[in-house]
UniProtKB/TrEMBL annotation:
Similarity annotation: Belongs to the iron-sulfur cluster assembly SufBD family.
A Pfam family matched in the record: SUFBD_core
Descriptive protein name: Fe-S cluster assembly protein SufD
A biological-process GO annotation: iron-sulfur cluster assembly
Segments forming domain SUF system FeS cluster assembly SufBD N-terminal: 14-181
SUF system FeS cluster assembly SufBD core domain mapped to chain residues: 194-420
InterPro entries: Fe-S_cluster_assembly_SufBD (IPR055346), SUF_FeS_clus_asmbl_SufBD_core (IPR000825), SUF_FeS_clus_asmbl_SufBD_sf (IPR037284), SUF_FeS_clus_asmbl_SufD (IPR011542), SufBD_N (IPR045595)
SUPFAM superfamilies listed in its UniProt record: Stabilizer of iron transporter SufD (SSF101960)
Length: 446
């Protein structure tokens, strides 16, 4: 594509987003004078100086969003969903406060807003921006998302998010009960633009978790764009677990941006399971701002049909005595395609760093494809670091062994595939979430 043609296409896409924002802004009524709206306008104005990624960009060379960018996206609106439907999306055995969003809009009557665990507080972003205790930090987090030079989708999320939330974990609070955010896509007859926004602040010496599940109602086969933004600040000696199980419609485009900042002696653990969607792009990054931190990334992806799942991870070791552990596993079948690009930087001052990264994939058909690029850049000399990647097929000797024990060929292969992915899921501390993820994986493998 010529430069002129590319610029024309960018201009057309930007004009459509601006027109959509004008419609969105016109419906805000009195909310246009609130602090959040200043950030919204800054988000849409970033389109003046930013372009959408193409496959000419190194980090996007295997993934194209052209199909989504051509969609006549529409603003989301309330869709009626009954309690029985939401109950069917609950995680069996999980004791959690439930927050329900349908097409990105809060369903108050279906949510447990009055049952947020002691030690936690859940605030709408608009309200948090008026809270003297946190408004400065919230503004900085959103401003940083808007000004991200490499990611126009974070700025778009800030511009269009309707029901963003701030989850606060109070200092010294050890909260065993998580918050479960149910994201549900519901059919509207047109391609909707959904922008889930979650900001997490954990106080010093605290511990907490949030579980996010993404699902679609039957009939939600109309294309839609889920543009997710999550920012997490983990305080001194705090420990936070973020779970995300994505089982969107096969017509969905999903772009997820998760960024964590860790203070001294803290732990941040991310658990991502990607089963749904048409084109899925995950950007996960962590900035270490104190010594003695630990970062854990666990990811599972399963692409069948024509699914495309792209995981981009980044960990910046800038200070000494920190560790990171990263394990991603996936299965590609039919014409499914997977991408993994994981980068770990160990800077000159980051002595005594211990970093591990591994990506392993099974490719089960001749038309499936996996592109993997683990990267480890080390500028310090007293470190223990390793990284690797494997792409292979099922071990036929293992299949033969299981068949000799009475299993059919299909049962043997499914069991080996389950074991391959469950190796990652087993790292989830919440048993109910782990069991739920395994059930979904088992169902999709059949």
């Amino acid at each position: 594509m010529s430069t002129a043609t590319l610029q024309d296409r960018y201009a057309e896409v930007k004009d459509r987003f601006r027109s959509l924002f004008n419609v969105f802004e016109g419906a805000l009524n009195g909310h246009r004078d609130q602090p959040m709206h200043t950030l919204r306008k800054a988000g849409i104005e970033r389109l003046d100086v930013m372009d959408f990624p193409t496959r000419r960009d190194e980090n996007w060379k295997y993934t194209s969003l052209n199909q989504m960018l051509r969609l006549p996206l529409q603003d989301s609106y309330q869709v009626e969903v009954d309690a029985a439907t939401i109950d069917g999306l609950a995680i069996p055995g999980l004791d959690a406060a439930r927050i329900v969003l349908v097409n990105g809009l809060l369903q108050t009557e279906l949510s447990d807003l009055d049952k947020i665990p002691e030690g936690m507080e859940l605030l709408p972003v608009d309200q948090a921006l008026e809270d003297e205790a946190v408004k400065g930090q919230i503004s900085e987090m959103l401003d940083a998302a808007v000004k991200n030079d490499h990611n126009p989708f974070s700025a778009l999320n800030v511009a269009f998010a309707k029901n963003g939330f701030v989850l606060k974990v109070k200092a010294k609070a050890v909260v065993e009960k998580p918050v479960h955010i149910i994201h549900l896509a519901a059919p509207t007859g047109e391609p909707v633009f959904i922008n889930p926004l979650l900001l997490v602040l954990t106080g010093a010496h605290s511990e907490g978790a949030v579980v996010e599940t993404y699902d679609a109602l039957p009939g939600a086969d109309q294309a839609y764009f889920s543009n997710i933004l999550t920012r997490v600040h983990v305080g001194v000696n705090a420990h936070f677990h973020h779970y995300r199980i994505q089982n969107d419609s096969a017509a969905a485009t999903v772009v997820s941006n998760i960024e964590a900042h860790q203070q001294q002696d803290s732990t941040f653990s991310s658990y991502l399971v990607d089963l749904g969607g048409d084109v899925v792009r995950n950007n996960l990054s962590t900035i270490l701002q104190g010594q003695n931190t630990m970062t854990n990334y666990y990811g599972v992806y399963l692409a069948k049909g024509k699914q495309h799942i792209d995981n981009q991870t980044f960990i910046d070791h800038a200070l000494p005595h920190c560790g990171s552990n990263e394990l991603y596993k996936g299965i590609l079948d039919d014409r499914g395609r997977g991408v993994f690009n994981g980068k770990v930087i160990v800077r000159q001052d980051a002595q005594k760093t211990n970093a591990f990264q591994q990506n392993s994939s099974l490719v089960l058909s001749k038309t499936a494809e996996m592109d993997t690029k683990p990267q480890l850049e080390i500028f310090a000399d007293d470190v223990r670091c390793s990284h690797g990647a494997t792409i292979g097929q099922l071990d036929e000797s293992s299949v033969f062994y299981l068949r000799s024990r009475g299993l059919s060929d299909l049962q043997a292969r499914q069991l080996l595939q389950q074991a391959f992915l469950f190796d990652v899921v087993e790292n989830m501390p919440l048993e109910a979430v782990k069991d739920y993820a395994e059930q979904l994986i088992e169902k999709k493998l059949k």
